[in-house]
Fold each of these.
Amino acid sequence: MHPAIDQLSKLPIGEQLEIVQDLWDNIASTRESMPIQEWHREIVQARLAGTVNEESGLTREEVWKQVDQKRGS
């Protein structure tokens, strides 16, 4: 565990949450890209491949329309 965590954990929860939000904001504003592991890419590709049945010729919008109809929306 990072030594700063010991000090931060002594702060009230509200202050800890503010620090977490500040960290996320800082990370989001950084132009540095995060390395993506190959197995993450493989999972994303597998999930994307399964989102639309290309054989049916349906667009994503048509698929979601069918889903909404089945839900009664």
Note: The first helix runs from residue 3 to 8.
Amino acid sequence: MNPTIFRSGGLRFFFFSREEARLHVHVAGPDGEAKIWPEPRIELAHDYELSPPDLKRALDIKGSGRMKTGKPGKVTSTAELSNVSTHGMWLLVDERELYLPFDQFPWFREVPIAQLSRVERPTPDHSRWPSRSTRSTIRSGIPW
């Protein structure tokens, strides 16, 4: 999952949840991507063929006040979809990442990612996906 933080001048600024502890942001342009560390000073971590003008604009964006850093926010969901492959999906639950293989949970195999990401956790031992195309509730077999 890679939520968009904001867009500016054809560049998309986003992050991957649970990628690494150091604060960073990814930037995608039409020709490539880059990874930037905004603290303690703005610094290029990796450049994956982002054009030089786009890279310069990405590095200058923090100075413009558009991207400000601060303390990490509070957790807004106690369960979230963190990754999907052809073999299964990973859920982030209470700071732990759990793998749900599709051979054990076959009803999720053909479900679109947009529906998989609607996971809800109404109680500590219960997760559910409110969708008609998935089995609506999972209770057992997942070690919360």
Note: The mean pLDDT is 76.
Amino acid sequence: MSKKFTLLLAISFVFVGALYSQSAYLGYGLGVQFNVGDLGSTITKDGLDNAIGDQKIIIPENTIDVWSKSGFAKAKISGAMHGGILNVFYERESTSTFWRVGLEYTKKILGGKTSASILGIYQNVSQNWDFVSYYIPFIYGIKAGVGEASSVYGGIGINYHRGGWSLSGTVDGATPCFVGLQFGTYLLCGFGPWGDAELRTAVAFARQQNLPTSSILNTVDQSKFYRGAIFGEKVVFDVNGVGYNLVIGFENRLQNKSKFYIEIEYFVGGGMDNAPVQAIGTISQLASTGNLSYPVNLSGIRWKLGLKQPL
């Protein structure tokens, strides 16, 4: 018993000494993740087909850009979503290793907003995307000194994550249409086959009478513009789970013993979610059951910088 007690006491002293020799830091900082949700292609060039597959229920920005070049429509495009990151963590380090546990919050700060209007009067597209995620990482890694005050480090870990993206707004572009010129008149997405015919007639009449273009919509039956359109939709996808992460970074000790750090992290997380839809146009064009299932990708490369303060 005495030998076991002595061995246990020795192990305890070694363990306590190891903890005492470690340095503890409170870290915090800012960061950015580009193309959050991995939705850049969907927003800018792919869109989303309706259930029939011959029209877009999400209008891509390259199509909207074509509309704006016609001079008949006004458009605002902002590209893929980019997220801003707030992070805080607790870190302990020894001579050559470290471990960390933290919390990160990511929110869309740029991009993800698309709109188009006919003659600046009738807004037929208003697509507003958003992204939010929470992320709790645990990382273990190694450090190597560079000079007297700097270190480079790298680590691997696991994480718990939760988050997703949402899309809200109006899309009057799911009905049959063409983009461009035909027989000298404009055919625009969002106007059904009867609405297209009336629009062509109205355009021709306005040109003959030298009327301002703003008067065109007053001469047609606008109720025919709404066939198959989506108004006031909001769909939200949210997932949670466990993933993994890799990090590499550089830190430099300041005169007050704090450390400035800059790091790059590759984070993996996501899943499949099912969400209800509320707009009649979405149900008729895409989701006959009233629900949609869609993969949610939270993964990406995160660029971060900040400070580590000794505790």
Note: Residues 104 and 135 are 5 Å apart (CA to CA).
